[in-house]
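Let's do one together. I've listed all components of the complex below, 638 residues spread over two lines.
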Amino acid sequence: MVGEERRRRSLVLTIVGIIIAIYVLFPFYLVVMNSFKVQADIVASPIALKGVSFKQFITNLGAVINNSNFNFWRALFSSVVITVISLALLALFGAMAGWVISRNNKKKWATAIYMVFIASMIIPFQVVMLPLVSTFRDAGNFVGIPMLSTIPGIIFAYCGFGGAMTVFILTGFIKGVPYDLEEAAAIDGCSPEGTFFRIILPLLTPVLTTVTILNGMWIWNDYLLPSMLLGLNGKYKTLPVAVQAFVGSYVKQWDLILTAALLAIVPMIIIFLIAQKQIMNGMIEGAVKG
Amino acid sequence: MKANSSSRKLLSLLLLICGAVLFVYALILDFSRSGAKYRGAFLILGIVAIIAGLYFFPTLKYHRRIIYIIFLFPLLFTFAVTVIIPLCLGIYYSFTDWTGIQFTKFVGFENYTTMFSDPQFIWSILITFIFVVLNMVLVNVIAFLLALLCTNGIKGDGFFRAAYFLPNLIGGIVLGYIWQFVFNNVLINITKTSMLVQTKTAMIAIIVVYIWQYAGYIMLIYITGLTQIPGDVLEAAQIDGANPSQTLFQIKIPMIASTFTICTFLTLTSAFKQFDVNLALTGGTGSAQFMGKYLTSGTQMLALNIYNTAVSKNNYALGQAKAVLFFIILACVSLIQVRISNSKEVEL
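Okay, and this is what the predicted structure of the assembly comes out as:
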């Protein structure tokens, strides 16, 4: 009897779950479906399968990819370069700084740096974005290294903004790595930098994965920072900026807008399908620690 | 530091001298406003050479200290240039008539008094607070219910978790436009007029989209909390005859109090800073009658208001002053929230 009841309950819950899942995934279905249609068919009936053709999808794709406001391949390339280099630098610099801070955590200067990092995590981007642009412009002009509308400039900014959270998570983890390991290495004649790169860094793999996922989700989807530093009409655009620039130029051309949206979300979905577990765990750990 | 100490010394000195020369030469070029193209490269090369010289510096006593400085330098430098300096400059500029490029005079608190005489701004603050409170409650309730659903022996829970989390992968701009399509072209068949036209329904629309994006993520955190409750506690409750609702309210919820703290904090801060969805979904449009004035940006929340004041209306000083106020509000609200919730679990 109990088993029967439990099975029925499980069935009801599963049905509820499926209904919610349909609701959650429905917009994705609409995006995919309507990328295969012409504008007229979309307006006539956005849900129906009528008018769906693969040929139309290719036409839409061609129109979107070659559009001068969207420039898909270029935007994808910029996004990938910016995200990958920022993530690599953040992981390396964050681990280096986190190691120094956690190995000197009894000293005043290390505590002070740590506290400044933690306090800065509450700073919203809005309060620094306007002076950031002027600082980057002026400093760039002054030293002769253009910082605005360039990829190195925005990577520099991401290192600065992601630094606090990265150091916070990494320091917490490194504190748990036994100091004996480093002492043993030092006795064997290993230099401090050698100890860090050969012993500590390999031990950090799990927490570096977490940090990279958190920063990656943020940098890949970020809109405000690239729109300020790269500009909506700049030489380089990340995908979110390109989508915004594209939609701004085509009011209500849904066949093209939805195809552009599809192109913008596909890379992330592919990565999610490959590394689903790591991404979900990384997001949880980041939240719990952060 | 054992072998070739003399060659090491030479290398170190050479690098330090070359680096210093390049660095100083680049700075001279900068200050003399020569505009030479290679001065940027000189500066970077100089700094790299100085760091390398320090690294090879033949000392046993200070080597560890030098390594610490080199290791801290990159992050502290980028952090100072991108966060600390702009923050200080920003607070400073908010008291001037800054135009985004330069300023001519101090205006004291004028920017701060101007913004409070603007009904649009006060309206933005109001709707932001309403939005934040509604979101904090709704996202947490829905996410918690989803978490209960996913941990209650449902079949294929892995699929459901991934599906509910999926919207969180997509940036606010893209999903804002996707939902604009949904509201304007699909749901319009049910609602007759688009929900995005009227201010009230447009705010509801923003909340719906926001929950759609964020609840899956918060759900994951609740699931983690719920699965960490020791099984024997639940078993003991069952033996003592606790019914499911008693188990939920008297055991599960108190035992994941720390998870509630984390989730309310996350939803609070992220809802407060909400910008992308607001921009893409409604662009801040919508009419409203407020303080005897007719407003045209009824759904413009605080973050978007700041952006529009500075970037669209080109009033940088006022926008910056609003941003400083935004920062103060956010800091106060977060501090109060952490105070109220049990902050024991937050490990520093």
